[in-house]
Amino acid sequence: MYELSSRIENDSLIFVESVKNLQNVDLSEKSLCIIKTDFSDTNIIKKICKENPNLEVWLASEDISRKNILTANSCGVKNVISYPVDARLVQDFFKEKNKNQYSNQDFSTNFLKGLKVMIVDDNQMNIDLLVETLSPLGLELSTFIKPIEASKIVNLEKYDLFLLDIMMPEMSGFDLAKIIKNTNINVNTPIMFISALSDPENKILGYNLGSCAYIEKPFNINVVRSQIFNTLKTKMLQDAIMDKKETFLAMVTHDLKSPVNAEICALELLLNNKASSLDGFQNEVIGDILGAAKYMKNLVDNILQKYKCENGKQILRKTFFSLEMLTIQCVEEIKYLLLDKQLEIKINSKLKHIESYFDCLEIKRVIHNLLINAIEYSDKKSIITINLYEKAEGFYFSISNKGLGLHLENPNIIFEKCESFAQKSKSVSTGLGLYIAKKIIDAHKGKIFVSSDKGNITTFTFIIPKDEPK
Questions:
Q1: Are 37 and 52 in contact (CB under 8 A)?
Q2: DSSP string for residues in 280-294
Q3: What is the Cα–Cα distance from 156 to 460, expressed in whole angstroms?
Q4: What is the greatest pairwise CA distance in the chain?
Q5: Looking at residues 207-231, what average pLDDT do you find?
Q6: Please, where are the H alpha helices in 274-355?
Q7: Which helix (H) or strand (E) holds 377?
Q8: What pLDDT was estimated at residue 97?
Q9: What's the CA gap between 445 and 354, in Å, rounded?
Q10: φ, ψ dihedrals at 62, nearest 5°
Q11: Per-residue pLDDT averaged across 18-42, rounded?
Q12: Are 103 and 221 in contact (CB under 8 A)?
């Protein structure tokens, strides 16, 4: 039995030289129990079988006769084998058990059908094996022998899973994973490394790069299939939860939009038409309420815009319009927000009588977000400066304010979703405004960036290309 134990390592298996060795042993987690016997202990064996209905019991004996086999069967024993035990019998048992477990797994639901999986391996045989392994799942498989070619696709197509070899010519699987994680559309797509490298260092590097699994070659087909099946199943559940969350937020903010707009209209009407009958304090209170309402409107618009951006519902409706005129309109709309800090906005424009081609509503949203951001982080009684000018690559909008400044190694990280500088400045911010601004400028095929100098002057700049309607 010792020799057999050394040849077969399986936590679901237990060998004993005598039934007495099973006293005080928990068999609930075992699949197979092999007991050496001379058939004088069948009453105890019968009790073990009865108390553990899910356990398969085999008897190993040097004396196998028809009578002993019938006795064993009457006790609930499934098999009687010769002693010493042939390890191949045990191995075949677990192979068949794994096969049956897999065949019982519900792959017939087809809920994974159509999900896109990319396989990258420089060995065609490995690719063929993975394709054969995954064929029952109904997945849409894309295969690449050259990782360079795969790297060109990950920016263009959304995938649900990447299966990457590590040791490949021209580019390693680790390098390809870094490229994937830097894309917009596949940054959250799970990655699995499948490699012959088994050292801990490479495994740790793989997990640090965001891999959800590290599978060593040669691999067990059933195990890999099950890992992939459950990874995709988990991803689908997470995506469904996120989609419900985003849809709920969109519905709530959409319902808030009408009452907020009505509140703004009422306050503006009151402030503009009744100013003569109100004293200075009343005017200030109404102005503060109006500023808060407009801040709320901007927040609601940002959440709705985020939903559109991330669900492919953002459609640009470009027309010719003056960027200078649009900027003046935006400044007029937020003038009450300047009062609390006693701020001033100065516009320097070299775009007089010049029209450019853009989506007015969306670019207005960008300007609003940049204005509110500048107001939020400006020092009291300071000047916010807006510069409008033209260069060969397009029309420039630049807004600068003096405040805390951006002391970051990579300042442009604040354009990422929910990145905010609010905690340092002890203010409130969702971090959505700049994220949405970048999405809108990207949709216009423009650029947006930020810089901050030692004097704590922070400057946000965006460029609208000089494209013409086709």
A1: no
A2: HHHHHHHHHHHHHHH
A3: 28
A4: 114
A5: 84
A6: 280-310, 323-333
A7: none
A8: 72
A9: 20
A10: -85, -10
A11: 89
A12: no
